[in-house]
């Protein structure tokens, strides 16, 4: 069967989760590329403040990803976590219009990330449980494609509103529309029946009982994420290289467009060629991108570079999550995704703070070079350690 035919036969829940992500990201990405501009031009805050805001918001919200994942396994229910998480984030974003200092931006970004923390692990587990193992890469790729499509529409709307000289605060308020649609659609989600819980396998908060290859995967993911600071630094770099403010959202839209176009076919390719090959290739692309962005001093080169970054996202976002489901039993998927998302989120705090410090104390090249080195080493370890070593090694 062709990929298109398989896509048509994916369960309704898979498609609905993708459409929900589309409208959520349209709302979120409408304001995401504007936050660095708002901090720098209105609130007069620099890279250190940006690193603190994004690091704390993402890391603290990630604690809830484990909490929600484990409890969704224990209560055998994911839908309330998904709908509630989207509702909280949709409520917080428009309030950025009323922030008068960077600590208030931190509080609202924190609330937004708490909403994401509540929904992400249960949603990933729901998606993995809904689809057959042979189509996991395709299903996660479709979800990422629709999510990234929303990340194209949002920045394009932001660029158009900026070009029309709409105030930043008013743009923030417009995000409420997409958030409302998101919540209404999330309430329509249904989940499949749960299998009986096997006896003698109590659910815990710890990694005990989770397969050793999965634990190794988490260790490598932590190393990669140490060099994967907030994407807002990429937008700040573009602005420092002379890109006009109204083009910053367009640049980010290019990243999302590339990811939206290639996420489904590349993630589906992981169903046939293997997840780790796609992830290793994507992390290598990431390393090259960061190194070139640190060296580059020409604004014109930003456009092909950021399109290149979109290929990294397309190759890894779906495959990384599909690999989790390959390594862990179905009854502990919520817990596994909780640890997966917790690891990535917690490492974002030191990653963002280290990146901001290296940038401000040394140079942009030092910051981007550090990230490139972490990604390259993580790709190597994923290939020679997680992939090649026996499970009991």
Write a structural description:
It is built from 15 helices and no strands. It is mainly α and 393 residues long. It has one domain: MFS general substrate transporter like domains (Growth Hormone, Chain: A, Up-down Bundle), CATH 1.20.1250.20. α7 packs antiparallel against α11 and α11 packs antiparallel against α12. One of its GO terms (molecular function) is transmembrane transporter activity. Pfam families: MFS_1. This is Major facilitator superfamily MFS_1.
* Main sheet specs: none
Tally of individual domains: 1
The helix content is over 70%
Number of beta strands = 0
Low-confidence stretches: none
CATH architecture: Up-down Bundle
Q: If you average the pLDDT, what whole number results?
A: 82
CATH class: Mainly Alpha
> Roughly how many Å apart are the termini?
38 Å
Classified in CATH, the superfamily is MFS general substrate transporter like domains
Order of helices and strands: HHHHHHHHHHHHHHH
Structural class: mainly alpha
Pfam family, one: MFS_1
Keywords: Membrane, Transmembrane, Transmembrane helix
Protein name: Major facilitator superfamily MFS_1
Domain Major facilitator superfamily (MFS) profile: 13-390
